[in-house]
Amino acid sequence: MKITLIVVGKTTDKRINDLVGEYAARVGHYITFDIEVIPELKNTKALSEQQQKEREAELILKSLKDGDWLVLLDEGGKEFRSVEFSNYIQKRQQTVPRRMVFLVGGPYGFAPSIYAKANEKISLSRMTFSHQMVRLFFVEQLYRAMTIMRGEPYHHE
After folding, report:
1. Can you tell me the distance from the alpha carbon of 51 to that of 49, in angstroms, rounded to the nearest whole number?
2. CA 71/CA 139 separation, integer angstroms
3. Domain assignment present for 21
4. Distances, alpha carbon 46 to alpha carbons 8, 50, 59, 79, in Å
5. Looking at the domain assignment, is residue 92 inside a domain?
6. Partner of 8 for a Cys bridge, out of 85, 89, 106, 110, CB 3.0 to 4.6 A?
7. 3-class SS string, the chain
8. Are 30 and 150 in contact (CB under 8 A)?
9. What is the CATH number of the domain that holds 63?
């Protein structure tokens, strides 16, 4: 199984980019992992929130492949402790045949078409984080999950 994180828009903060890159490289020691960036929409001032979500959805759907297992990172999704998330990833490794895709939406969330396409929703927290920080938190938690699976000392419980 391959894990892909799809995000809408670039991270503009070099420090966050560097940390995301560091954790992504660490994850790469355990599993095939990549991050795909969908470009931010241009000239969004003339668009309603719903129109913006629909346009983003078109781009997101183009980036998905047949057989992808789509997991939305959504505030209304299931919450896990780190050990539980590790167990979740381990189970999905046995059941997802190709690519498990985690998706971070744009500033207004997801269009109904994306919710309809999703297999699952998970939440990193009930708090709201910037889309830039969500990338870092997710990649760090994925790395933590891998070390928990291997019994390595990164996570302390």
Report:
1. 6
2. 14
3. yes
4. 19, 12, 19, 35
5. yes
6. 106
7. CEEEEEEECCCCCHHHHHHHHHHHHHHCCCCEEEEEEECCCCCHHHCCHHHHHHHHHHHHHHHCCCCCEEEEEEEEEEECCHHHHHHHHHHHHHHCCCEEEEEECECCECCHHHHHHCCEEEECCCCCCCHHHHHHHHHHHHHHHHHHHCCCCCCCC
8. yes
9. 3.40.1280.10
Structural domain tally of the chain?
1
- As beta bridge partners, residue 5 has 35, 102
pLDDT digits (tens, 9 = 90+) for 80-102: 999 999 999 999 999 998 999 99
Residues 6+ apart with CB under 8 A from 67: 97, 98, 99
Establish if 123 belongs to a structural domain.
yes
65 domain residue, yes or no: yes
CB-CB contact of 69 with 101 (8 Å)? yes
Between CA 133 and CA 112 the distance in angstroms is 24
pTM across the whole model: 0.95
